[in-house]
What does this fold into?
Amino acid sequence: MNTKRLNPVSAVTFASKENAGRRLLLVLGLLGLVASPIRADDLAVAQSAFESSPEGWTNIMPPTDLKGWSRVPVPPRGKLGRAQWHVDADKDLLVCDGDGGHDMLLTEKEYGDAIFHFECRYTKVEGAKGYNSGAYVRNSEDGAVWHQAQFGDADGGFLFGVTPTTSGKGKFFSLKDQIAGTRVKPAGQWNTIEITARDKAITLWVNGAVTCRFDDCGLNRGHVGLEGEGYRIEFRNLQVKQLPAK
It folds into this structure.
């Protein structure tokens, strides 16, 4: 496993023109269009790729019958619980009730190099602790291979999972120890998160900054999706932007 640590960032004030230019360079860099290095001060002010480069995105919010998506138990050989995912068409939300066990909701379509953008918030419950959910890229159809962005209640914001190796076996990885603090907001508040998969690298961006990057993904394409694990959570604005080959 080859990982790269990104240092924590601090708030910095910029002139408006310089700030806008740096944002553009960062977005182009994440899209693989320029080779400029990412600096800590850039990370502190970065917009999401969806905001900065709005062309070329596909809305993948599921219909009310969830057509185009499938539930996969966690672990893969487990049993599915009650159907806990539904779409609130009036509010344009995908909702996981959190009472149907541990599962993944995965797209039936596979993606290679792409950015997965989404927004999420937990339903806050007084006295509740341990809020847990995540999002996936480049997963296998059965969920045995998974690359997850973890987020909780003002907690998480790191990548972990099981990725294939050249021998064909899966290898566990976790970047939890590489992040300092968290950019994830408390339960009840909306988070904006993006996962970029490009070649072997998977980069996680949370609420304005890149938090970590995994450089040894063993699967060049796979399914994207979301996790249900015991807590009610809402998702909106699910978008995918497929990236051109280098």
Observations:
- DSSP finds three helices and 16 strands in the chain.
- The CA atoms of residues 106 and 225 lie 4 Å apart.
- The chain has a mean pLDDT of 86.
